Amino acid sequence: MRQVVQNYKSGELTLLDVPVPACKPGGVLVRTAFSLISTGTELMKVSEAGKSLVGKAKARPDQVAKVMQSVATNGLAATYRKVTSKLDSYTPLGYSLCGVVEEVGAGIDDVAVGELVACAGNEHALHAELNWVPKNLYSRVPDGVDPRHAAFATVGSIAMQGVRRGAPQLGDVALVIGLGLIGQLVVQLLVASGVRVVGVDPDPGRCELAERLGALVCAHPDSGVVDAAVGEITGGHGVDQVFLAAGGGSNGPVELAAKLARDRGTVVDIGKCSLNLPWNAYYEKELDVRFSRSYGPGRYDPSYELEGRDYPIGYVRWTERRNLECFLDLAARGRVDVEPLISHVADFADAADTYQSLNAGELKAVAVLFRYPDTETDPDPVVLTVPVPATGSRPGGTRWRHRVGPVRIGFVGAGNYASSMLLPHLVAREDVQLRHVVTTSALSGANARRKFDFAAASTDLADVLENDDIDAVFVVTRHSTHAELTARALRAGKAVFVEKPLALSEDELRVVLDAIAESGNDRLQVGFNRRFAPLLRQAKHEFGHRVGPASVRYLVNAGTLDHSSWYNQADREGTRFAGEGGHFVDTVSWLLGADPTSVYAAATAGQDDLQIMLGYPDGSTATITYATTGAPGFPKETLDLVADRKVLRLDDFLRASVFARKRWATPRLPRGRDKGQRAELAAFLDAVANGTPMPVPVDSLVATTLATLAVRTSLTTGAPVRLALPSAAPVPNGAPR
């Protein structure tokens, strides 16, 4: 494998081929996806390496003292050999990365192979393709967090530990001196804590960035702007805390801290700047000077870092690892945003040139990431599969008899979608009885009962699942509950209509399949309604039989979400695409008459816009563009299918056309947008009433769900994902497509 190393004697910096580290007990082997250059600490090392021996000595007086002690103990000649040997060795760089667990060592049970983790440590989170990382120096990355953002977790923990040492309180005013990478993160963490922040930096670009990230005022230290702002904001008292995030040999930061701090204020040193404290200024205000030691408690303690011995939370609330976890949680919830800090993403192969450009000042950057190759060093494909439940082979399906009388329905959930897109189609049907609605809020249940004439309403799920007078259950709740509620309803012997998604993870999907296997009840439909849209079905009919492989392009102009939408709760409810993407995968699969066999996904910065490529058994391909940054006035969904010298075009379920030897098109004036909910419900109710197969085979529902989940896996690994379906046997309720 390759690793970034530097010769401290000559200053040479290169990518070196080194052996792959072993996966030792008590840790995991991680394949790096992104690693972060610390533009402060690392560039200081790079700069020092280029100095003469005298320059190196001036830069590291602490090491000079050690050398002099060695001369006194071992003699000049022996010390010279020892020092030159050490200087002439390669040393590693890097300490903050995100990657995928490739192997798990003995004694590790909190992560599994294939999971994304953030890693810390200047001996374990190096700029290298593979790293062995001990237990207390990694943390699993929450779902929905961009791997590039997770690579900031270590420097985020450094900033967080500095903020904790300052002990700010709600409503405090803080001054951050130095708005580099650490300073920018300190600003965001303070703002998230309810602190009013003022910043100082000689770079106007960094001042502007800090203001965009929440600081009230930021300016050059000599401009007088900050002095005036502090006086106005604090009523002349001075700031409660000063955070020193600056480097260099100037004594200006500590002098400015004394000038602008309030009486008995706190000064926290996070960076590495000169600390020649002006005694009178600090004495007269009785300033409390504190140091922040790296990522937090546990740092430099071998028993914690190497042996995995955690500190009891009752005695040490925030350790290195708990700081990592906390920062990742803040990133997942959008409380810190590192995307604006990313100035440049370089290929790992260009590491040496990138360092040289940074050191020479040619590349101006707050944060720089290395992007690592994914498939060059790991040719084995990623496979996503849900194995057959251990209870045995798939059941033959429940024997359903023809029902005499209306289908009796219970609803779990009655939110906006249920009330606007499903229940209006059901309430007018004579072959349906709306028997019971269950909601978490008693008032919403009462409203649903009044609007749609349910026979009863309650907040107890048992009123639906244990009710023998109910034939079918509709699960229309938040995404995180779908799999569990579906499994419970199947085990209760009900036919189930669940809104998408069926599951948010492979484990949740197994829960549903286990319920089918154990109960013998496979009467399941997921709300993939677009395949039932009359306009699209007519267009598919006009296109006719397909002979050769097809190419499909599906543009989804999804738009932005309101900040208050629960769809933003990615850590709990899954990503936006995980919730909605099954619609588009299912539509394409229905058009092509097959289930996807591979998925590859790529994303723009911040994963706002996605490109998903699906592969199919006959060589057909489909590209789904899921965009949130498009124009609001552009149609939401446009689709093109190309095959056999023919083209099918769908324009947002309003117009459709087929270009072939004989052209077909819908009227210029659309009849209205119908995305298939009415026809979908009719097909489901017919299957329930007559005991016929469900409208969509279970294997197809599983394949669509797996493909949707594979998008996250592909984004994480940067590699295509091969899909392996749970069974090649015929589906018990198998209906023709």
Structure description:
The chain is α/β, with parallel strands linked by helices. The protein has 24 helices and 32 strands. The chain has 4 domains: 2-151 and 323-371, Quinone Oxidoreductase, Chain A, domain 1; 155-291, NAD(P)-binding Rossmann-like Domain (Rossmann fold); 407-527 and 678-695, NAD(P)-binding Rossmann-like Domain (Rossmann fold, 3-Layer(aba) Sandwich), CATH 3.40.50.720; 531-673, 2-Layer Sandwich (Dihydrodipicolinate Reductase, domain 2). Strands 17-32-25-26-27-24-28-29-30-31 form a 10-stranded mixed beta sheet, covered by helices on one side. Strands 3, 5, 6, 7, 8, 15 and 16 form a 7-stranded mixed beta sheet that branches. Strand 30 and strand 31 form a beta hairpin. Helix 3 crosses helix 4 (76-87), helix 18 runs parallel beside helix 19 (506-519) and helix 22 crosses helix 24 (698-717).
| SS strand fraction | 15-25%
Write the CATH fold name of the largest domain: Quinone Oxidoreductase, Chain A, domain 1
- The overall average pLDDT, rounded, is 87
Instruction: Return the domain count.
Output: 4
SSE-based structural type: alpha/beta
Query: Order of strands across the biggest sheet?
Result: 17-32-25-26-27-24-28-29-30-31
C-alpha end-to-end distance: 48 Å
Low-confidence stretches: 375-379, 388-399, 727-737
The value of Rg in angstroms is 31 Å
Instruction: Specify the CATH class of the largest domain.
Output: Alpha Beta
Q: What helical percentage do the residues reach?
A: 25-40%
CATH homology group of the largest domain: Medium-chain alcohol dehydrogenases, catalytic domain
Beta-strand segment tally? 32
Number of helices: 24
What is the global morphology?
Answer: elongated
* CATH architecture title of the largest domain: Alpha-Beta Complex
The major sheet is characterized as: 10 strands, mixed
